[in-house]
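Lecture notes, unit on protein representations.

Consider one protein chain, 343 amino acids long.
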Amino acid sequence: MKTSSRRDFLRHGAVLGAGALLGIPALRNARAADPQTLVLYNGQHAKTTTALVAAFTKATGIQVEIRKGGSTQLANQIIEEGDRSPADVFYAEESPPVAALADKGLLAPLPDSTLSQVIPGYTARDKTWAGITARSRVTVYNKDMIQESELPASVMDMATAAWKDRVGFVPTSGAFQEQIIAIKLLKGRDAALAWLKGLKEFGRAYNGNMAAMRAVERGEIATALVNNYYWYIVANEVGADKMKSGLHYAGPKDPGGLITVSAAGVLKTARHAEAAQKLLAFMVSQAGQEAVVDTVAEYPLRPGVKSPYDLKPFDQLMPPDVSPADLGDAADALALRREAGLA
């Protein structure tokens, strides 16, 4: 839950950290004669992106038109539009839709001055996209229905008869697709398929992460596999001290503790390429990261930025050895779901 003192994330103005936004005065002066408006295809949460864009426009004078949609939907739209796409920047809730565009050669490289602002391991190997914020996969559990000590060390053990009707999951969630691929990479395709079949047989599918989270909170089901920030959304509504549910972080290196990221890239066909690169630089700057994490309980990926939420420290998480770049476009997740009867 958030701390009581709420920061004004705009207080930094144009003071954005080394190399983040050079040449802003010149850009402001030029804008009077040559106005430009960036087009941002946004798959991230609307509130988060609105706050980010407001801070960016205040700092630079550059206007941004936000076009909202699902991350995968927008990636497919960009592919279909090709050279005609009006998008300058693509900001996705998960990394695979951005990686899919990179694989098709549709993203421009980002400069090292931008990529170096991000914690190592959370950018594309080909330098075409950057992670903006991170979240951890967790098991949320109802404290009246189960003790945390009863939860297994591995998420793999929850797709079994011993957990029949006690595990909620969201098969269509982007982060769930990434978790499937992580299991495939760590334990093999057969293990990933068996895990999905187990969840289908013994678990309970929900049509959204908030639906699964609220089901646990009201005692409809004992546990659910979600991202950490969904718990904080409910905690902000009712108060953390009144929550009936808690967060369980999986054992060391377990795929149940996978870290996933929101990510962004600049289109090769961007009409305003220079300004688009400035937006990416702002996203990972001090002011940009504060604007984002002030709205959602995700982890900043720029060192030294602190979330106003009472998150488990990032360096205390023990995720598996699978990076967002390793996940790629997560294309095989859908095939595995279909084989398991979960499509």
